[in-house]
Amino acid sequence: MIGAEHQSLQAVLAEFPAEPGSLIPILQSVQAHTGYISEEAVWEIAQALHLTESQVYGVATFYAQFRFTPPARHGICVCLGTACHVRGGERLMHTLQHDLGTATGGSTSDGRFDLNRVACLGCCALSPVVKVDTDIYSSMTTMKLKGILRGYE
Predict the structure, then answer these.
(1) Are 108 and 98 in contact (CB under 8 A)?
(2) To bridge 79 with a disulfide, which of 15, 84, 96, 100 should be the other Cys (CB 3.0-4.6 Å)?
(3) Are 70 and 35 in contact (CB under 8 A)?
(4) The predicted structure's pLDDT at residue 2
């Protein structure tokens, strides 16, 4: 583990009691600091809490909130709730998968975008909706979406 990353992880571990009940808050804190849970972090967390790496992975993989690869520079979420689905959300998702060359849950090879689906973004009256980072785009079409994505480095 690189020095700064190791020091950051040690600082996180120092915030919590060294007991198995601290595992989820530690995982959340590590991910908040680094954007993901690295193999090295799993090993160090396991050592600190007297768990096996399998136990740490078992808990972390149970929850969808944890990721094990570095995040891309920008995150795309396509809403596929009922209103968005009916108004073309699935078509937007297929277009993105094709144009970006990645599957749902994946990242582009250049590390530019992560592509994910969400059940609902709570913007049903504005459907179909796509979120890029923290920006919400409403009444999306494939052409509008392609133009918007060109604006993200």
Answers:
(1) no
(2) 84
(3) yes
(4) 59
Query: Averaged over 122-141, what is the pLDDT?
Result: 96
Secondary-structure class of domain 3-62 per CATH: mainly alpha
Instruction: Give CA–CA dist 129/138, Å, rounded.
Output: 5
Instruction: Name beta bridge partners: 79.
Output: 118
CATH of 74-150, one of 3.20.20.70, 3.30.450.20, 3.40.30.10, 1.10.1790.10: 3.40.30.10
CA distances from 131 to 6, 48, 74, 128 (A): 33, 37, 10, 10
Q: Give residue 3's pLDDT band: very low, low, confident or very high (50, 70, 90).
A: low
The residues of the chain that CATH labels 1.10.10 are 3-62
**pLDDT attached to residue 7:** 81
- Cβ neighbors of 39 (< 8 A, separation 6 or more) are 68
Report the relative pairing of strands 130-132 and 74-79 from DSSP bridges: antiparallel
Count of beta carbons in the 10 Å neighbourhood of residue 92? 24
- For 54-103, write each residue's pLDDT tens digit: 999 999 999 988 999 899 999 999 999 999 999 999 999 999 999 999 99
